[in-house]
Amino acid sequence: PPVEAFDLVIFGGTGDLAVRKLLPGLFHRYTDGQIRPGSRIIGVARDALGESEYRERVRAAVEKGAGDEAKNGDAVATFLELVDYVALDARKDAGWAQFAQKLALTPERVCVFYLATSPEIFVEICERLREHGLNTGQVRVVVEKPIGRDLASAAAINDAVGRSFGEHQTFRIDHYLGKETVQNLIALRFGNALFEPLWNAEHIDNVQITVAESIGVEIRGAFYDGAGALRDMVQNHLLQLLCMVAMEPPASLAPDAIRDEKLKVLRALKPIDESNAAQLSVRGQYRAGASNGGAVPGYLEEIGKRESRTETFVALKAEVRNWRWAGVPFYLRTGKRMPERVSEIVITFRAIPHSIFTEQAGPIFANKLVIRLQPDEGVKLMVMNKYPGPGGLRLREVALDMSFAETFGVRYPEAYERLLMDVVRGNPTLFMRRDEVEAAWAWADPILKAWEGMQDGPKPYTAGTWGPSAAVALIERDGRNWHEDG
Ligand code: BG6
């Protein structure tokens, strides 16, 4: 259903995130009838652009990013009428008073400030907004990751944002939570009676979470080299996925019911520090190789540096120390320049306790639930079956296979579409509460510290491979393997 007309101000309105994700996403919501005429989408950046120049950029962004729907020229034209631009510098006073005047906030109208800038200026923007009275009424602020680079800096950002906005006004984005397939984890776990009785250490042998990308660091080298895969992907996206898998059933879908449960998982994570980081973690950095059918440069060439200790790949063995999960390893893995783009959660159940089959039946594989987050979204349950025919009882592993595209035949909204509208509606369920972000950093900090203290940096791996061989060794030591689709 449409929401009342609202204002959305995008700081960083000319930036990568706005152009690639936010503006095309808003256009989709608009063509779906969710954004009423009278709403305003205001891009803010330092560039001295006029309204019509900005609208042309928005048009290009929509045409590039919104697929077939953007072929409807009338829809694009009416969407552009909602778009406006203001040139502003967060570090200078000039222009802010006029900006506040132009916004003309009223107590009833929802106004969302989206901080899609580089994180160094989040705090200044929030201060300016407060100074100009732009923090009261139905005002909400969206904070993009990275929120800090460790616990202390994250707390400082949260404090600073908190001086201008209440927690109920603050929406910390982790766009993985907006992915349809991630929300489906809630449906799968709590809409079915089948899984929950088995969802524990007694029946589950291990959990694997892989978020692999085939791209390199692209144009974000400067940012990325100061972050690395643990800060960029694990502290947020992979831990959120882990929480969705591991959390206790919340009593309801109320925002805090779910977030309380996720927080408990984060706080139950076994610490990884100097004492065990060498056994439980592997870092990698890609070298030149081949990807997507062509030769690609290594990480150092890409960022134009002779050396760097920044990891572009991480594999970890995590553990949730509570009654449900005691002793079950959660193997996490993420990297750039992997052989393919694939995000997947694999739950491997325990082996059958006793086999009644002869050797001729062939190997019996443990059941697996494979939740494919992207691309080719779907859910597969691997089960043993009899191979047809008279040749005795021969077993084969077969997939009960559900593809979302085939089953539902609808377009999958992008994560940001859903999340943007949730902010406008004031629903924080899929956003991270302050304590969650900080608990995730509290776990990540000792890992980073342990790595800093190590003599060696990340291990090299060839672009287009699954990371350094040490990542394979990490799981093989436990007598297990990374799941491979076959
Ligand atoms: C972002 C990271 O949060 O997520 C990027 O900063 C990464 O490095 C991206 O490429 C991956 O998102 P998606 O939706 O393409 O899986």
From TrEMBL:
PROSITE patterns: G6P_DEHYDROGENASE (PS00069). Pfam families: G6PD_C, G6PD_N. Pathway: Carbohydrate degradation; pentose phosphate pathway; D-ribulose 5-phosphate from D-glucose 6-phosphate (oxidative stage): step 1/3. Substrate binds at H175, K179, E213, D232, K336. Keywords: Carbohydrate metabolism, Glucose metabolism, NADP, Oxidoreductase. The keyword Hydrolase does not apply. SUPFAM superfamilies: Glyceraldehyde-3-phosphate dehydrogenase-like, C-terminal domain, NAD(P)-binding Rossmann-fold domains. It catalyses: D-glucose 6-phosphate + NADP(+) = 6-phospho-D-glucono-1,5-lactone + NADPH + H(+). Its EC number is 1.1.1.49. The active site is at H237. Residues 9-184 form the Glucose-6-phosphate dehydrogenase NAD-binding domain. NADP(+) binds at R46, K145. One of its GO terms (molecular function) is glucose-6-phosphate dehydrogenase activity. It comes from the Bacteria. Residues 187-483 form the Glucose-6-phosphate dehydrogenase C-terminal domain. It is an enzyme of class 1 (oxidoreductase). GO terms for biological process: glucose metabolic process; pentose-phosphate shunt, oxidative branch. GO terms for cellular component: cytosol. Catalyzes the oxidation of glucose 6-phosphate to 6-phosphogluconolactone. Belongs to the glucose-6-phosphate dehydrogenase family. This is Glucose-6-phosphate 1-dehydrogenase. It comes from Tahibacter soli. The lineage of its organism: Bacteria, Pseudomonadati, Pseudomonadota, Gammaproteobacteria, Lysobacterales.
